[in-house]
């Protein structure tokens, strides 16, 4: 039972869905092997070990045709047991991702109890009055709206209401969080400005807990690329779940973070690991944590050297590099899922397979022996 007396029904498995959902059942019955659902901390929710990011549905860096977006969501429904978990944000395409999620789910006939939607709040759709959107120039392609930041109690409530309106009935956000509070704090002009921004965040979280007490949401969290901001927030806010981004990867896993994750696990906070490829670099991409590293730079050369040695070890052990990154991201107790994102429907099955694959313990020990993995990292077994 949620605070405020509202009762939430747990999302049902396909075999429990009402009659008349033949389309969805046909899509899901071909999954193999089935994924085990994990408890999301003490929220009472159970989620698959893979969540899907939806920035591509908002046209991040490229305009994706609706047919391809629909095909992607169809593959997610097909390969993942209910509840399918979709992580989105008002910032993604100035709300386009949320609109697309609702449209695709309705077209596929997915019942609302078979999906959990996470909406990261803090950006609100506004009219586009310039030739290009003014937020994150160059990132979002072919969108018809702009977005403005709205942090604080009133702003977060407005973002929440707008997000549900963009999703459209019968869908709504179940998991809510503040979007990138680390970036909001980092933009402070001075210490006094940071204190003011911190008060804005406190006000925003008060609003979220009021929504939870009213039975309008089920769990409150935070998503951040700087895990230290999550630690700072967790000292004041009783978070239900957190999403770590570019923080816990096979390349970067500081002992302070490992210790913090252990404390969150002891407190019953559910954790989701995002950006386990360091924005794609670890598996051959150009960008590292959303910047373009320079192989000629003295500062970046060790990064390229590490990747070369890592990929060589993967070849030697016949371990797919992407699978290694995903499996490492799930090693620590309390990390219940990884969040992956792709604009290509054909890759959904591979993404799902990566969370069920097995990587031998000896592989991780070999990485430790090579200095690729910290010797202090607590391997299982």
Structure description:
The longest helix is centred in the middle third of the chain and has 23 residues. With 381 residues, the chain is of the alpha/beta class. It is globular and about 55 Å long. The chain has an eight-stranded parallel beta barrel with strand order 3-4-5-8-9-10-11-12, surrounded by six helices. The chain has one domain: TIM Barrel, CATH 3.20.20.100. It has twelve helices and twelve strands.
Tag the structure with descriptive keywords.
8-stranded parallel barrel; disordered N terminus; alpha/beta; 381 residues; 12 strands
Describe the secondary-structure layout:
Blueprint: H1 22-28, E1 38-39, E2 46-47, E3 50-53, H2 66-79, E4 84-89, H3 96-108, E5 115-121, E6 123-127, E7 145-149, H4 153-167, E8 175-179, H5 181-186, H6 191-213, E9 219-224, H7 227-234, E10 241-245, H8 255-266, E11 270-274, H9 301-317, H10 321-329, E12 335-340, H11 348-356, H12 361-369
Parallel strand pairs: 3-4, 3-12, 4-5, 5-8, 8-9, 9-10, 10-11, 11-12
Antiparallel strand pairs: 1-2, 6-7
Work out the count of structural domains.
1
Q: What name does CATH use for the topology?
A: TIM Barrel
CATH class: Alpha Beta
Low-confidence stretches: 1-32
User: What is the topology, as strand order, of the major beta sheet?
Assistant: 3-4-5-8-9-10-11-12
């Amino acid at each position: 039972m949620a605070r405020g007396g509202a009762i939430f029904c747990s999302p049902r498995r396909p075999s429990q869905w009402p009659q008349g959902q033949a389309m969805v059942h046909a899509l899901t019955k071909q999954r193999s092997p089935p994924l085990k659902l994990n408890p999301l901390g003490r929220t009472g929710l159970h989620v698959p070990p893979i969540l899907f990011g939806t920035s591509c549905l908002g046209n991040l860096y490229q305009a994706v045709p609706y047919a391809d977006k629909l095909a992607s969501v169809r593959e997610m429904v097909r390969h993942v047991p209910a509840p399918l978990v979709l992580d989105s944000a008002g910032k993604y395409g100035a709300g386009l991702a949320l609109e697309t999620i609702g449209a695709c789910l309705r077209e596929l006939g997915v019942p609302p109890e078979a999906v959990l939607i996470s909406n990261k709040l803090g950006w609100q759709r506004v009219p586009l009055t310039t030739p290009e959107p003014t937020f994150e120039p160059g990132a979002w392609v072919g969108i018809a709206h702009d977005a403005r930041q709205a942090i604080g109690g009133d702003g977060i409530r407005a973002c929440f209401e707008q997000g549900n309106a963009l999703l459209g009935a019968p869908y709504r956000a179940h998991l809510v969080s503040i979007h990138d509070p680390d970036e909001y704090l980092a933009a402070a002009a001075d210490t006094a400005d940071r204190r003011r921004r911190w008060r804005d965040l406190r006000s925003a979280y008060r609003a979220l807990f009021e929504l939870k007490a009213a039975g309008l949401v089920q769990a409150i969290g935070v998503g951040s690329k700087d895990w230290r901001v999550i630690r700072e927030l967790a000292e004041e806010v009783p978070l239900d779940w957190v999403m770590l981004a570019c923080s816990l990867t096979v390349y970067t896993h500081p002992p302070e973070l490992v210790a913090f994750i252990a404390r969150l696990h002891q407190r019953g906070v559910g954790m989701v690991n995002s950006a386990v490829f360091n924005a794609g670099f670890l598996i051959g991409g150009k960008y590292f944590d959303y910047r373009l590293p320079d192989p000629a730079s003295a500062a970046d050369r060790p990064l390229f050297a590490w990747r070369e040695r890592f990929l060589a070890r993967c070849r030697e052990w016949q371990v797919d590099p992407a699978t290694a990154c995903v499996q490492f991201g799930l090693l620590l107790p309390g990390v219940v899922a990884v969040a992956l994102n792709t604009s290509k429907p054909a890759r959904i099955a591979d993404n799902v397979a990566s969370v069920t694959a097995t990587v031998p313990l000896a592989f991780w020990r070999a990485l430790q022996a090579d200095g690729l993995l910290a010797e202090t990292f607590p391997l299982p077994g």
